[in-house]
Amino acid sequence: MNEPELKVVSYSERALIAGLIMSDEFISGIEPIFNPRYLDTKYTQIVAGWCLDYFKKYGKAPDNHIYDLFDKKRSNGLNPNQAQLIDVLLSGMAEQYGEESFNPQLILDEARNAFQRKGYDLLADDIKERLDAGDVAGAKKLQTEFKPFHPEIKEENSLQKALADNSLVMSFEDLEASDLPQAERLIDGAIPIETETITLITGEPGIGKTFLTLEILKVAASGETGLAGCITSSGGCKCLYVDGELPENELKRMSQLLGLSVYRGLDIISKSKVERLDLKPGLNLLESETRGWLGEFILTNNYKLVALDNIFSLFGGIDHDSAKEWSPINDFLVRLRSKGVAVILLHHPGKSGDQLGTSSRLFNLNTALVLRKSVPDDKITENTACFNITIQKQRGIGLRLSGKKFVFRDGAWSVEGDKQYDEELKLAMVAVGLVDNRVRSELASEIGFKNRSSINQKETELRERKLITGSKGNIIFTDSGREFVNDLTGKIYG
After folding, report:
1. What totals of helices (H) and strands (E) does the chain contain, helices first?
2. Do 399 and 277 fall into the same domain?
3. CA 337 to each of CA 29, 116, 232, 320: distance values in angstroms, whole numbers, following the listed order
4. CATH number at residue 44
5. Nearest alpha-carbon partner for 31 in 130, 175, 158, 186
6. Is 437 a member of any domain?
7. How many domains does the chain have?
8. Domain that holds residue 474
9. Do residues 38 and 119 make contact, with C-beta atoms less than 8 angstroms apart?
C-alpha cells in the first residue's frame, strides 16, 4: 500500500480539532458556524464530522471516546489512507492538549475569525467558478445570498444569551460587593507595572528600548533591584520576551551584558530563530492564526509579563496610520490584559518624536513612555544606552521619572541628575507661568531664581525658540511650545 501524502495541518486547525474532541464549551460554540469546507484537509473534516455527530447525539464532546469512534469507523471500511492520516493526527494529541493547557474560549475566538475569513475566500472562489462558466446571474446570486458563517447559524450567541437571561447585567451595588481578582504589582519604583496593564515604550532605533525592557523583565522574574535602584520587585513573575528584530547573536550579546542566563522564569521567542528553522507560517502577529497560538502559549504557560519587541517587526505589513488594522491587534492585547497578563509593547517614533502611527493605539494603554536621547549620537555605542523618559500617557499608577537620565554602560545601569533636563523643565515652568499671567517675582521665587530678571531672560529664550508668542499679558503657546511643555511636565495644556 502506498504511503498517503500527509498534508501538514496548521496549528490553528489542529487546535480546533483538539477543541472538538475535548471541550464541551468549544464544540457548543463552534457547532452553529461550522462548515467542513472551512478545514483544509479531508481527514480533519472526517474527524470533525465524528465529533459533531457525537455532540448532536449526546450533548457533549467525545473526549476519549474519539478512539472508539475511530476504531469503529476503521472496522466499517474507512479508507485506509485516510485512516492512517487520522491515526497520525490523533496520536499524542492528549499529551499536547491536556485539560489544563487548553484554553477553549481563546481558540474559539480565533476559529470564528478564521472561519469568517475562509468564508469570504470560498465565496470568491465560487463566484469566479460561476463567472468562468458564463453564469453571471449565478455569481450575483451567490454574492447577494452570502452569509459570513454557515447558513445554519443560531440566532443566539453567548453574549446574546447572557443578556437575555440577565446573567451579564449587574447593579453597581453588586459590582462593589463582588469578589474580583486584584491587580498584582509586578514592578515597583520609578516605572511601576501591574498585571492587567498595557505599556507602550517608544524610542528611535538604538536608543536603548530593548536594554530597558530586558532589565524590567529581569527584575520581575528575579526579585532583585534593577535600573540602578530605581525599580524593585518581589520576584517570581514568569516573563516572556518576544523579539521580532535582532539576530540571535545580537540577542546573545545583550543577554551576556545584562547577565540574564542565571535567571529562571525569563524566556525568549526569537523571530530570527523562527526564520532560521524555516518554521511556517512565520512570526507575524498581523495574522490572526499566529496571534491565536501565541496567546494560547502565553496563557497556558502562565506568563504574567510579556514584552513584544517591536510593533514594526512583529506586525509585518501593518498600515501604521490605520485604526482599522490596529483594531484586531488591540483586541488581542486587551484579551491578554483581561486574563491577568501585563504586556509591554515597543515601538518606533514618528516625526514628532512620539509613537508612529494612529492615535487609536493609545486609547487602551495604561502607560505610554517615550525615550529621548540625552547625549549626542557619537557618544552612543552598541553596548551603551543613555536617555530620558517622557510620560505620554499615565493611568492609575504613578511614575517617577522627572529629571532622571538613565545610562547603561559596561553592563551596568546608572542614574544621573540631568542638568539639561532640569534647565528645560525650568524653561517649561516659566512658559506656563507666562501664559497664566503669573506675577513674575512670585514665579521666579517658586522656580528657584534669584529675581524676576531671570524670568525676563527665559522669556527671551522662549520667544527665540518660537515656543510662545503674543504680547505681555496676553502670551500664548505656539504648537511646538505646547508640545514642549506637555512633554516636560507630563501635563496637558490646551
Report:
1. 20, 14
2. yes
3. 23, 25, 22, 22
4. 1.10.860
5. 158
6. yes
7. 3
8. 422-489
9. yes
Distance (Å, rounded) from C-alpha 87 to C-alpha 69? 12
> Looking at 389, 417, 445, which one is the last position of a domain?
417
Measured between its terminal Cα atoms, the distance across the chain in Å is 78
Q: Which residue has the cell 529621548?
A: 372
Contact 341, 298 (CB under 8 A): yes
pLDDT digits (tens, 9 = 90+) for 155-203: 444 666 676 667 778 888 888 888 877 888 899 888 889 999 999 999 9
Q: Are residues 360 and 248 in the same domain?
A: yes
Q: Across the strands, what pairs with 406?
A: 387, 415
Same domain, 324 and 196: yes
CA dist 463 and 455 (Å) reads 12
Q: What is the pTM of this model?
A: 0.57
Co-location of 133 and 198 in the same domain = no
Q: How many CB atoms lie within 10 A of CB 176?
A: 9
User: Domain of 460: which CATH number?
Assistant: 1.10.10.10
Report d(CA 242, CA 309) in Å as an integer: 6
* CB atoms closer than 10 angstroms to residue 173: 8
